[in-house]
What does this fold into?
Amino acid sequence: MADRPLRLGIAGLGRAFTLMLPTFAADPRIALVAATDLRPEARKRFEEDFAARTYDTVEALCADPAVEALYIATPHQMHAEHVTVAAAHGKHVLVEKPIAVRLDECTAMIEAVRRAGVQLVVGHSHSFNAPVLHARNLIDSGAFGAVRMIHAFNYTDYMMRPRRPEEMDTRQGGGVVFSQGAHQIDIVRLLGGGHVRRVRAHTGNWDPARPTEGAYSAQLAFADGAFASCTYSGYAHFDSDEFMGFVGEMGLPKDPARYGAMRKALRAASNAGEEAALKAARNFGGSGYAPPGPPPPDRSHQHFGVFVVSCEHADLRPTPDGVIIYGDDSVGLDPVPVPAIPRIEVIDEFYDAIIRGTPPLHDGEWSRATLEVCLAILESARSQSEITVHHQTGLRGARPGAVG
It folds into this structure.
């Protein structure tokens, strides 16, 4: 039977939706039928672009019988409430990362979707990227032996991008540990098999004008004896895309001559209100918003910095082109074709969970385990001690594989 469109409602038309829109618009398995957002200009643009309805609240959106699933891209601290409301209305949910900001919220979300008999998938995190999934597939093949060590690092301009005030408040899910650790830790857990046991970390909060964590460095110990080092900095100095052939996170070529552009643009905002307005202008329906065009021909896979997985007989490095295998006797790229639709891996998992009943990999339990490690990074930095984690889970549901 041919795939039928999934009738999707959107809760939150901000930056996350703006980045996912090229996927939603290009994938015939998705029909955008309704949305809600606090900004009238965003609701108006959605109505015009998709001939769809909009609502003032998430509750009203969930009550729409034409909506069978929700993409929830509201601020982090609202995820738990909105997922619970969606589940109570019998809607399947794709919720943005991080799943929530507290473990008890995660558990409430997991229980809510279980009671309702609906699917919960958390994404987009860059652990959906096809080269990352292919690296896991290579590990599962057994050809290179067990994973022994993982090294991950990413240096970006995250902290210098325009932000809303709550994005500078750690208690509300602000800072790089929640927003960026949700990518990096998710990838490291996937490559390492999932079962982290202990975390020791330091965090950096080095800009008084942006009073939240802008950097971290963490050591993770896995239950099977493997270990990982994870480093992230968002302070807009060194750019680790230099090590990725100047391919940016979204898989597009990056011009090195634009170094420092985001920091310079931020100087146009003299207060928090003006900075929030700068961010809103870039988002769907804003004055600076540009609708997505066709994917450029020089597009590569999206990525999240440098990862090196040390196995017993090879080091594996996911790249924007595939996975480089540094074996015992040779080195070479195992290429992974770039899909026609960016982030199609997210729709594959979400659609298959709903339509075909395939257990998702990035479900509530998996994503709670990623959040638990992120919270342990913050606690370890505060207490200057090692933190033991207890809610970890392995690779369940859909097995990772390469996009062909």
The two ends are 21 Å apart (CA to CA). DSSP finds twelve helices and 15 strands in the chain.
